């Protein structure tokens, strides 16, 4: 371990017990969690969570959303190169496709990917107002993919008749990042539109490459809320992103690149009845992702890959407050998934295209009851009927107890999660139509303690999660008679492997966090111990799951007085991890960032940062490059 790492790591670990990822408060000091589909006061939430408000997001100066997510408890990230490359997010050791991404109530996913999950690599911190992270299985309200947890992103909402903000930054590797948003709030309509552009020369995606693999991205988003009558409103939302990334092959530099276009649209009607005690939401949304890969070194056909994933959802959600102490949330959903994928060869042969579809019909209900002051109990059930594998039911139960005016909060929850097999795993040449959903059962218990008029806050959570029926790729034997599974279904064509429900895992761990603020001085951070083991029969039994470090830690220390400037140092530690089952070990690493900001006029601030200050050489995926020392300067204006 380099000398500087030995110097800073003890300080990081010590500071983490005095600090945590910031949690968003309103003016009264109350915290509201919206990722539970209906706003819930934080002291009534039984699962652990982190909320990042706009002030915290701007202070961290992230480019991509994953830049700030990895600084919260229990989360690690792997990326196959620089910005725009394939990015996997893991919450508490759950597989990359087992964490759900939501933007403004819209579930983002790509039905054509291997695991059917969201693409975190193209999610940037554009017009974002707030990020909420719910940890542990959350399938009662959110259905499939929510085994690890839910990342809920909320974009800016107008509060003035006309308002806006603009951010422009530039830095290393000819990087330029610009984003802007404008909107207004009136008696009948609230509206906002935003856009961004990002470009960088990047780094070599592979460590054995020499040329840089660039990335460019443009995005746009919009929201509109129309108040039609008392208690009746219409919501329209949309999100669009268009990206182009260069990438390398396993042997090094190539002239290959990929194009990705993704959009999501939402329309919903909200009706509040019985003096607002009975709320209703009826919505339809659709998301679509188009991906194409090209290799300019091919002689006949430059296109190497073409895929389209589409998901259409119909949702009804109701809420009924029997009293201030009893609240019910219930709903019904239908999701229609469609996929098209092809891999053209460098020849004139006809291209074989795979098309697939599946539907999921769901109903759910959750009750939240407060039988006495400070105590909240909750329980829920969800049933999903998949057009391919049939029915699946999950349950949850939990509670929270706020003592001494919220100075101490106890939380405990048992929850179940599931993930439906993706269309790729079911229907491609490596698929199996007999796949069943992945299952998880988890529980957690935690305590939240506030001291010195909330200038010091401490958090501790213990969790466990058992997962089975996990889908993995099974390789066919090469020296014996092939079983039936080693032939493409319905043909006599051999294949070298197939997807099957063959794995089990167990994850348990401790998350410690806290925050301290005295005058202008502040400290925050967290430490996570994640024991995530492969429990499948075979040679890998007992090994830590691939790309899941056993130890994670973050710390941030700084000074931010009220006279318009701030300076801070941020440290991020990731322990050793195995690149893949039975594969090589990735070394641990410690990254150091410096940040500063100064207000030069009302509504105008200049900021800058140096990332990876000591130019640490590290890897999150074997054979793929990572960003070295990087410097950025920017300006932020709002009106």
Automatic annotation (TrEMBL):
Record has Ion transport as a keyword: yes
Compartmental location: Cell outer membrane
InterPro entries reported in the protein's UniProt record: Beta-barrel_TonB, Beta-barrel_TonB_sf, Plug_dom, Plug_dom_sf, TonB-dep_rcpt-like, TonB_rcpt_CS
Any one Gene Ontology cellular component term annotated for this protein: cell outer membrane
Keywords for this protein: Cell outer membrane, Ion transport, Membrane, Receptor, Signal, TonB box, Transmembrane, Transmembrane beta strand, Transport
UniProt record, GO biological process: cobalamin transport; monoatomic ion transport
Membrane topology: Multi-pass membrane protein
Motif stretch (TonB C-terminal box): 622-639
TonB-dependent receptor-like beta-barrel domain boundaries: 201-613
Signal peptide (UniProt feature, chain positions): 1-21
A family per Pfam: TonB_dep_Rec_b-barrel
Domain TonB-dependent receptor plug: 44-150
Domain of life of the source: Bacteria
Gene3D superfamilies linked: TonB-dependent receptor, beta-barrel domain, TonB-dependent receptor, plug domain
Membership in a protein family: Belongs to the TonB-dependent receptor family.
UniProt-recorded name of the protein: TonB-dependent receptor
Lineage of origin: Bacteria, Pseudomonadati, Pseudomonadota, Alphaproteobacteria, Sphingomonadales
């Amino acid at each position: 371990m380099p000398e500087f790492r030995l110097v800073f790591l003890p300080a990081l670990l010590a500071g983490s017990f005095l600090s945590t990822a910031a949690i968003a408060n309103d003016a009264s000091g109350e915290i509201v969690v919206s990722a539970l589909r209906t706003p819930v006061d934080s002291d009534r939430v039984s699962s652990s969570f982190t909320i990042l408000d706009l002030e915290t997001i701007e202070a961290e100066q992230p480019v991509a959303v994953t830049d700030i997510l990895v600084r919260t408890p229990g989360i690690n990230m792997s990326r196959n190169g620089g910005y725009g490359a394939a990015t996997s997010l893991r919450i508490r050791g759950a597989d990359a496709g087992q964490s759900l991404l939501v933007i403004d109530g819209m579930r983002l996913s790509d039905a054509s990917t291997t695991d059917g999950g969201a693409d975190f690599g193209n999610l940037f911190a554009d017009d974002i107002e707030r990020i909420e992270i719910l940890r542990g299985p959350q399938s009662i309200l959110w259905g499939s993919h929510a085994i690890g947890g839910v990342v809920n992103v909320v974009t800016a909402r107008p509060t003035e008749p006309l308002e806006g903000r603009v951010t422009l930054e530039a830095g290393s590797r000819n990087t330029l990042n610009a984003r802007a948003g404008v909107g207004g709030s009136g008696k009948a309509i609230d509206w906002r539109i935003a856009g961004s552009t990002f470009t960088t020369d990047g780094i070599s995606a592979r460590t054995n490459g020499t040329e840089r693999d660039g990335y460019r991205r443009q995005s746009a988003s919009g929201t509109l809320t129309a108040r039609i009558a008392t208690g009746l409103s219409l919501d329209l939302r949309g999100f669009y992103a268009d990206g182009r990334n260069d990438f390398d092959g396993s042997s090094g530099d190539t002239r290959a690149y990929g194009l990705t276009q993704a959009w999501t649209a939402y329309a919903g009607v909200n009706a509040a009845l019985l003096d607002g005690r009975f709320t209703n939401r009826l919505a339809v949304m659709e998301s679509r992702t188009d991906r194409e890969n090209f290799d300019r070194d091919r002689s006949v056909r430059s296109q190497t890959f073409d895929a389209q994933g589409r998901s259409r959802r119909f949702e009804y959600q109701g809420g009924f407050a029997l009293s201030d102490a009893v609240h019910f949330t219930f709903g019904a959903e239908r999701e229609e998934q469609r996929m098209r994928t092809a891999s053209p060869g460098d020849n004139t042969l006809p291209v074989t295209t795979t098309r697939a579809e599946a539907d999921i019909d769901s109903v759910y209900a959750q009750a939240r009851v407060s039988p006495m002051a400070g105590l909240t109990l909750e329980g829920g059930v969800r049933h999903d009927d998949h057009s391919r594998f049939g029915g699946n039911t999950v349950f949850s139960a939990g509670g929270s107890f706020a003592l001494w005016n919220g100075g101490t909060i106890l939380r405990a929850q048992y929850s179940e999660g599931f993930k439906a097999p993706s269309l790729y795993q079911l229907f491609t040449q490596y698929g199996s139509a007999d796949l069943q959903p992945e299952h998880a059962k988890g529980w957690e218990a935690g305590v939240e303690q506030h001291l010195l008029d909330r200038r010091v806050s401490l958090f501790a959570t213990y969790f466990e999660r058992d997962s089975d029926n996990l889908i993995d790729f099974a390789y066919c034997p090469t020296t014996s008679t092939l079983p039936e599974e080693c032939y493409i279904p319905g043909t006599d064509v051999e294949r070298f492997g197939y997807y099957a429900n063959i794995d089990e895992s167990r994850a348990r761990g401790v998350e410690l966090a806290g925050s301290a603020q005295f005058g202008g001085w502040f400290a925050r951070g967290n430490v996570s111990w994640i024991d995530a083991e492969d429990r499948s029969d075979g040679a890998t039994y007992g090994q830590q799951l691939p790309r899941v470090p056993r130890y994670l830690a973050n710390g941030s220390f700084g000074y931010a007085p009220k006279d318009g400037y701030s300076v801070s140092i941020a440290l991020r530690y990731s322990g050793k991890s195995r690149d893949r089952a039975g594969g090589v070990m990735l070394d641990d690493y410690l990254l150091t960032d410096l940040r500063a900001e100064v207000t030069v006029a009302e509504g105008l601030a200049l900021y800058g940062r140096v990332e990876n200050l000591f130019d640490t050489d590290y890897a999150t995926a074997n054979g793929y490059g990572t960003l070295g020392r990087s410097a950025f300067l920017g300006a932020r204006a709002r009106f």
